[in-house]
Specification:
- The complex is a heterotrimer of chains A (495), B (118) and C (489).
- Helix content of chain A is 77%, strand content 2%.
- With 495 residues, chain A is mostly helical.
- Chain B is mostly helical and 118 residues long.
- Chain B has a single domain, classed as Orthogonal Bundle (Helix Hairpins), CATH 1.10.287.
- Chain B is elongated, with a radius of gyration of 20 Å.
- Chain B starts with a helix and ends with a helix.
- Chain C is mainly α and 489 residues long.
- Chain C has a domain of 210 residues.
- Helices cover 75% and strands 3% of the residues of chain C.
- Chain C has 20 helices and two strands.
- In chain C, helix 4 runs antiparallel to helix 5.
- The chains are: A mainly alpha (495), B mainly alpha (118), C mainly alpha (489).
- Chains in contact: A-B, A-C.
- Chains A and C meet through helix 16 and helix 17 of A and strand 1, helix 5 and helix 6 of C.
């Protein structure tokens, strides 16, 4: 371990990336699943190790092939990346462990090795975005993960997955290209692609107009990828028709990584250097976040398809994350980053519970799960706890981020009071859409007499996610510590 | 005249918007993809054109040209990667269109929506 | 065991009991009910063991763990919480005995689930009683809401589910929408949420904002049922009667008024609130609720709905007493929690016994029932007299202290309200009593029936006896709550 220790940042990407072609060559379903899961768990272990180092020593810098930046490719891991690395690798591992059973029902055996290869590529891409310190590398990794995720989403058995993926592909590519334009403009002005170097050189250039344009391109491009309202239109269908385990993985982390890029560039590169950018960012993000929270929650209330219901809820929850960020304060950013972590936990648990449900109820519509709780008590109990976490009931992870968000809003003056009201209203909307499902499942007319409790192989990971929701609801030290440090990094006030 | 002097920006902008228009306005999925490719190509051109240094040589080091002026090679390297990404995206997009055609029997977006609504 | 250990035991015992009940339920019904009774008994012993130390002036407390810096899960014993915990844990024994009679007599389904969630809600109640800060209080408050939902919706038919939706809807809405921001506001302003003598807000928040914060707390604690957030209580009448008793007497509404009193005493500080203008509205809101709820009760034809509105009115007694902001009235508030609990649980037990024995629920049907069910109706009469406040019942004691507190500050609004509501209480309870004993039974549709199953009768006899005994032997309770007075002074 000690010999590997200095190379952990590189391993984070290399392990899944090199396993991917290997898995593609395997022809045996079970074995390929095993290798994939092992690689993902390895990545998770690396992420944990990295987090521990970051907590102890602060930012880790790593030079690929020992080429010093800005010439070589540098990797850099600080609290922000560590937090999201944990989320991404953890979600991937949990989804994979649950995945074997769920996927078997949705995807032919001989295609599964290829599916798993794509999964690893997506994982490698997401990890790559998080560890790299180079703006162009972010683009490349983003496209690696995106291309792989188009394949994953298209793996669903429903034919409507195909138009959904096409829309996802078009919008994703436009988003990435916008990002590329923005980076190009910065490169024109500064001649560097290294994020830290950019920050310094922008100050030397002294002319802000082009950087505002670059910021605009990057913000809009990443908003597309992160499904920030009103650029979210690809998300509901893509989540709905993707295989269930893919939804678990993506709902927990894919959009969050785009948000990470957005925050990193807007805060670290632009905010302190480009005059007035913070105000622009807040004016741009705040209203959109509020609209996202209210409109998406309202749509979720009337949605009958369970997966789409929670996809809409994700759009609303992304609104919470951007809301916290748009307050541009230590407390706001802490809440925002904390919610990335906690929302991943809650949504992960919920979509895992839906994957359990899907073993018996193929269509996953509200009117088809009447009375299902009597037949699948463990699944629905997991669903209830996940739902409570999403609502933000104390004792669950969701409560912690809500607590921080409201506290941050209190610090934001009179606008803050309005925001608190909005946050609370939307919490109540969450109560409505969760409770509609719970009530139907527990008290509805029995619609399905053949339903049986989901197999343990998928039930156990679901309950692990549920247990994490409760654990981090009562012991949130780790995410809180990481998020507050990460917020300090983004604001440039801490290491 | 200064505006025209920066003509490569104009080419970039026009290509970009043409591509974007096709992506948004066309209902035929292949045409959308063509628009998307154009959209990406515009950005490639932006990068490559700014890497050009007036009067510069191709950046190939030999023993006797060490002190002459070179064009910036980095944007070309970057765009080489971006082109690979772009091709993969297009290939994947076309593959999806083929699958859509197999399943729905059409590649017109409005017709697909019509079929799904039924 | 030290005080801190006892507190942990009090919270964990019902949790363990819930697990035990679940396991025992797979073996046999008798074993399950034995486990319930043993758990209830052990819990009461545990809680009562805390009393001697408290009387001697000890205030055991501990921090379980720090959730985030500045926000802990902490517990601390104090007179008000002791009273509430002792009340709830003791009544749980009686209620369990009654439940066995009622649930078996009615042949209810899913009885194991019923007993499990009952135990869980008791654990939450203990958490509320011993909470050492606002955060802990909120945590267990929500746990209580959620663990009582399956009890309220026990029957599971469409009408029940609809009512249960009102129940959870109002309680969750108010707690998340109003109570949570109030708590966070307190933490932001005061930097802490610990319950401490004399309050924590003095000099940190004043004027109209203090009144606003008080409003957020009072209406956010929907369980206290101050109008207009009382609707859940009549809606929850669809629950089986032991659950109604749990809601009205043992835990839920008591948790509400307990939390309001505790927050007024330990967060706002009685004196500070009294000296700040802008908090007087609470007295009027409570008075309004008392009078209006009594008027509504007057018009009810369904016995359980009548009792529900009576509870709404009686709860506001506690809130009003707390809002008088005088030491004697705070004692009155604490004692009224107990007094009302004894009386109301008796009334509900009686209503449930009538239902089990005769399936009667409407008032006109009760004519002449006293002769068929003498024990039950005697207990009902005692409970009703306690509601009115006639000696020798518990209701008289608390009314005495509330009135004394009102006179301390020459609070005529409170005095007039108490007088008016006594008249109204008499106006809706006395006709029932008269009809039950002296009315003639309707001839058509007559059902031959006697008393309800013996556990139910035993339970209601015990609570009726407690109602009277509390009038005679209230010394220890009063002296315990006098310590509250020292806190408040």
């Amino acid at each position: 371990m000690s010999a590997l220790q200095p190379h952990l940042p590189a391993l984070q990407v290399i392990v899944p990336m090199l396993t991917a072609p290997l898995v593609a060559l395997l022809r045996e379903r079970q074995f390929s699943w095993l290798v994939t899961t092992a690689a993902s768990l390895c990545a998770f272990a690396v992420a944990i190790a990295l987090t521990m180092v970051v907590l102890e020593q602060g930012t880790i810098s790593y030079e690929m092939g020992s080429w010093p930046p800005p010439f070589g490719i540098a990797l850099s891991i600080d609290a922000v990346s560590a937090l999201l690395l944990l989320v991404v690798t953890g979600a991937s591992s949990l989804a994979l462990i649950a995945g074997a059973t769920s996927l078997q029902a949705q995807c032919e055996s001989d295609r599964q090795p290829l599916f798993y290869a794509a999964w690893l590529l997506a994982l490698a891409g997401l990890c790559g975005i998080l560890v790299t310190a180079d703006a162009f590398n972010i683009f490349v990794f983003m496209e690696i993960s995106s291309l792989a995720s188009y394949v994953l989403v298209a793996g669903g058995p429903d034919r409507r997955a195909l138009p959904a993926v096409f829309k996802y592909l078009v919008m994703g590519t436009i988003g990435a290209t916008f990002y590329l334009i923005g980076v190009g403009v910065i490169y024109l002005m500064t001649g560097t692609l290294n994020l830290a170097d950019m920050e310094v050189r922008i100050q030397q250039v002294g002319e802000f107009q082009p950087f505002l344009i670059a910021a605009a391109f990057i913000t809009v491009g990443m908003a597309l990828k992160a499904a920030i309202f009103p650029l979210h239109v690809w998300l509901p269908n893509a989540y709905t028709f993707a295989p269930h385990v893919v939804t678990v993985f993506f709902a927990a982390c894919a959009t969050k990584v785009s948000l990470y890029v957005l925050l990193r560039l807007d805060f670290v590169v632009f905010q302190q250097n480009v005059g007035g950018h913070d105000v622009q960012f807040a004016y741009f993000m705040l209203p959109l976040s509020v609209l996202a929270i209210l409109i998406a929650s309202a749509v979720a209330i009337f949605e009958a398809n369970l997966k789409r219901l929670f996809a809409w809820s994700s759009v609303a929850q992304i609104g919470y994350i951007t809301l916290g960020a748009s307050l541009i304060s230590q407390a706001g950013l802490t809440a925002s980053l904390l919610h990335m972590f906690n929302h991943a936990l809650a949504k992960g648990a919920l979509f895992l519970a839906l994957a359990c449900l899907a073993m018996s109820v193929a269509k996953l519509r509200v009117d088809e799960i009447g009375g299902i709780a009597r037949r699948m008590p463990w699944t629905m109990a997991a669903f209830v706890v996940g739902g409570l976490s999403l609502i933000g009931v104390p004792g669950t992870a969701g409560f912690i981020s809500k607590w921080y968000l409201i506290q941050a809003a209190f610090g934001a003056g009179s606008v803050g009071i309005a925001l608190i009201i909005i946050i609370l209203i939307s919490s109540l909307m969450a109560v409505v859409y969760i409770w509609r499902v719970v009530e139907t499942a527990y008290f509805g007319e029995a619609a399905n007499d053949e339903a049986r409790e989901a197999p343990l192989a998928i039930l156990v990971p679901t309950w692990i996610a549920v247990a994490l929701n409760i654990f981090f609801g009562l012991h949130p030290n780790l995410p809180v510590e990481l998020s507050s440090r990460a917020a300090a990094v983004l604001l440039g006030t801490g290491p | 005249m200064e505006l025209l002097g920066l003509y490569h920006y104009w080419v970039f902008a026009i290509l970009l918007m043409t591509g974007f228009y096709a992506v948004v306005a066309k209902v035929n999925l292949i045409k959308k993809l063509i628009g998307l490719t154009l959209f990406q190509a515009a950005v490639f051109l932006l990068y490559i054109s700014v890497g050009m240094v007036e009067g510069g040589d191709a950046p190939i080091f030999t023993a006797d040209n060490a002190d002459s002026l070179f064009s910036n090679p980095l944007p070309q390297v970057l765009i080489l990667t971006a082109i690979v990404v772009g091709i993969s995206t297009t290939a994947l997009g076309l593959a999806i269109v083929v699958r859509i055609n197999e399943v729905y029997g059409t590649i017109e977006e409005d017709e697909i929506q019509e079929i799904d609504r039924r | 065991m030290s005080g801190a250990d006892l507190i942990i035991a009090a919270i964990l015992l019902p949790l363990g009991g819930a697990v035990g009940i679940g396991l025992a339920g797979r073996v046999s019904d008798n074993l399950r009910e034995t486990v319930t009774l043993i758990t209830a008994f052990l819990l009461a012993v545990t809680v009562w063991n805390l009393a001697p130390g408290l009387m001697a002036g000890e205030r055991p407390g501990f921090t379980a763990f720090e959730v985030v810096p500045g926000i802990d899960i902490a517990f601390r014993l104090e007179p008000l919480g002791m009273l509430f915990a002792a009340l709830a844990s003791s009544l749980w024994i009686v209620n369990s005995v009654y439940s066995i009679g009622y649930m078996r007599g009615n042949k209810e389904k899913n009885q194991t689930r019923f007993y499990i969630f009952f135990a869980l809600s008791l654990s939450a109640t203990m958490g509320i009683a011993f909470a050492g800060n606002l955060f802990t209080l909120f945590l267990f408050y929500e746990m209580l809401t959620l663990s009582t939902y399956p009890l309220v919706s026990h029957k599971g038919d469409a009408a029940t589910v609809r009512s249960a939706r009102v129940y959870i809807g109002i309680l969750l809405t108010t707690s998340i929408g109003l109570l949570l921001p109030a708590i966070i506001w307190t933490y932001v302003v005061a930097g802490t949420g610990d319950f401490s003598a004399g309050g924590i807000l003095e000099g940190k928040l004043g004027g109209p904002l203090l009144g606003l914060l008080l409003a957020l707390f009072v209406f956010g604690i929907g369980k206290a049922a101050v109008m207009p957030v009382h609707r859940w209580l009549p809606a929850a009448m669809v629950a089986p009667t032991p659950v109604s008793a749990l809601l009205h007497a043992v835990a839920v509404v008591k948790a509400g008024v307990f939390a309001v009193t505790k927050i007024i005493v330990y967060i706002f500080g009685v004196d500070y609130l009294f000296s700040t203008p802008g908090s007087g509205w609470l007295l009027y809101a409570a008075s309004f609720t008392i009078v209006v709820a009594s008027l509504v009760a007057l018009r009810q034809q369904n016995l359980k709905r009548l009792l529900a509105y009576s509870t709404v009115a009686q709860l506001s007694y506690v809130v009003m007493a707390a809002a008088i902001l005088k030491p004697l009235a705070e004692i009155g508030a604490a004692i009224h929690i107990v007094a009302h609990a004894f009386g109301k649980i008796t009334l509900f037990f009686a209503a449930g016994a009538i239902y089990v024995a005769s399936k009667k629920t409407e008032l006109p049907q009760l004519s002449g029932i006293g002769r068929r069910m003498p024990w039950t109706m005697t207990a009902f009469t005692i409970g009703a007299l306690s509601m009115i406040g006639v000696p020798p019942t518990a209701g008289f004691v608390s009314k005495w202290y509330i009135l004394a507190g009102a006179f301390q500050s020459d609070n005529y609004v409170a005095i007039v309200t108490i007088v008016a509501s006594t008249v109204l209480n008499a106006a809706y309870f006395l006709p029932i009593i008269y009809m039950a004993w002296f009315g003639r039974e309707a001839t058509e549709g007559r059902v031959e029936h006697g008393e309800a199953p013996w556990p139910a009768v035993l339970a209601l006899t015990v609570t009726a006896a407690l109602t009277i005994l509390f009038f005679l032997f209230n010394g220890p309770v009063i002296s315990l709550e006098r310590q509250l007075l020292e806190v408040a002074a």
